[in-house]
Amino acid sequence: MTASATAASAPALARATPRRFGVVLLAAAAFVLLAAAGYVFPRWLTFLLTMAAGNGLVSLGIVALMRGGVVPFGQGMVFAAGGYTAALLYNKLGFTDALGLAVCGGVAAVLVAAPFAPLLSRYRGIFFAMLTLALSMVAYGLLMKLDALGGSDGFNVGRPTLLGQKLPDDRVGYTLYLLTIFVATIAAVAMRVFFDSTRGLVTLAVRENELRVEYLGGSVRRAMAINFVVAAFCAGLGGALVVLSLGHIEPNFSFWTTSGEFVFVAILAGWQSVAAVFIASTVLEIVRSFSSAYFPNTWQLALGLFLLFVIRFLPRGIGSLWTKRRGH
Amino acid sequence: MSADIPAAGSTMLHVDRVNKRFGAVVAAADITLSIGRGECVSLIGSNGAGKTTLVNMVTGYLKPDDGRIAFDGRDVTALAPRAITRLGVARSFQIPQLYGDLTVLDNMLVANACHDQRLSFWQPAQRPQAIDRAERLLERFRLSEHRARRVAELPGGVRKLLDIAMALTGAPKLLLLDEPTSGVSAEEKFPMMDTIMSALGQEAMTVLFVEHDMEIVERYASRVVAFYAGRVIADGTPEAALGADDVRRYVTGELLAE
Question: What is the pTM of this model?
Answer without folding.
Answer: 0.87
